[in-house]
Amino acid sequence: MGKYILAQTLEEALDALETYRDKARVISGGTDLLPLIKSGGIKVDCIVDITNITGLNYIDYDNKLIRVGALVTHSDVESSPVINEKAVLLAEASKAVGSVQIRNRGTLVGNVVNASPASDTSVALIALGAEAKVVSKKGQRIKKVEELFVAPGLTNLGSHELVTELRFQGLGLGQGGAFIKLGRRQAVAISIVNVAVVLALDRERNMFSQARIGIGAVAPTPLRARRVEEALTRHLISDETIENASQEVMKEVRPISDIRGSADYRREMTSVLTARAIRRAIGRIK
């Protein structure tokens, strides 16, 4: 490991990223990056630690918009009253991440930019329609979370850029969400498949008025299941609709076989979990 910079301000962190570019890595919790560095999986000339930067540890709720700062941990998310009330699927996803120790240190933003295909929180954020606030010395831009991912472990963020915030609309009346994960054990397991669902219902017409679905561990990146969304939206709320929609997901996923499960098993379980998540989300809608 080369130089270590404990940034005290956002400006200091951005200066370092601008200087070192591809040779720098940002760290906050370090639960993903440090093991990679220690194992020799990646080599860096400069680590930029943003832990001491004030103003990045917040969960704000204003005018239906939830904003989560870059230093908010998974434990912060899973215990947040606002998240549990307005975006329970994200609380469920954060609770599914690693061990208690990892959740106490690892951050929500860090989990997203790590770009794991099996990221639990990324699929929940995709279902919530979340956006990332991306900053650099040149200014800032807003990018949808679902558009960040390029390949396993790779985003389209510039090496000089930093995600300082995630933002999304909280769920209201007529809306509900759910997250379900399948792992080889109950805790501290990388997902074999994970599914996150956000639904809106039109009770008068007895139909789905909106659907957003995120799926992980079955493609090179977390993905948005648009075929499933189309099979639900403006269709009657019925077992037949749910089953038809859950079958559509098998046409979208591109799973691999590994030690956690075969491609065929993943494909089948994606359909099963999608149907379960849809039903769970419906059950939460007031």
SSE layout and pairings?
Elements: E1 3-6, H1 10-20, E2 24-27, H2 33-39, E3 46-49, E4 59-62, E5 65-69, H3 74-79, H4 81-86, H5 88-95, H6 100-105, H7 108-113, H8 120-127, E6 131-136, E7 139-144, E8 149-151, E9 154-155, E10 162-169, E11 175-182, E12 193-202, E13 207-216, E14 223-224, H9 226-232, H10 239-248, H11 263-284
Parallel strand pairs: 1-3, 2-3
Antiparallel strand pairs: 4-5, 5-10, 6-7, 6-10, 8-9, 11-12, 12-13, 13-14
Helix pairs in contact: 5-8, 9-10, 10-11
Tell me the structural class. Answer: alpha+beta
CATH class of the largest domain: Alpha Beta
> What CATH architecture label of the largest domain applies?
2-Layer Sandwich
**How far do the termini sit from each other?**
52 Å
Relative helix content: 25-40%
> How many β-strands, per DSSP?
14
What name does the CATH topology of the largest domain carry? Answer: Uridine Diphospho-n-acetylenolpyruvylglucosamine Reductase, domain 3
* SSE pattern, N- to C-terminal: EHEHEEEHHHHHHEEEEEEEEEHHH
Strand content: 25-35%
Q: How is this structure best described in words?
A:
This protein has a 5-stranded antiparallel beta sheet. It has a 4-stranded antiparallel beta sheet with strand order 11-12-13-14. The protein has a 3-stranded parallel beta sheet with strand order 1-3-2, covered by helices on one side. A hairpin with a 4-residue loop joins β12 (193-202) and β13. With 286 residues, it is of the alpha+beta class. Helices cover 34% and strands 27% of the residues. The chain has 3 domains: 3-49, Uridine Diphospho-n-acetylenolpyruvylglucosamine Reductase, domain 2, CATH 3.30.43.10; 59-169, Uridine Diphospho-n-acetylenolpyruvylglucosamine Reductase, domain 3 (2-Layer Sandwich), CATH 3.30.465.10; 175-284, 2-Layer Sandwich (Enolase-like, domain 1). It has helices spanning 10-20, 33-39, 74-79, 81-86, 88-95, 100-105, 108-113, 120-127, 226-232, 239-248, 263-284; strands at 3-6, 24-27, 46-49, 59-62, 65-69, 131-136, 139-144, 149-151, 154-155, 162-169, 175-182, 193-202, 207-216, 223-224.
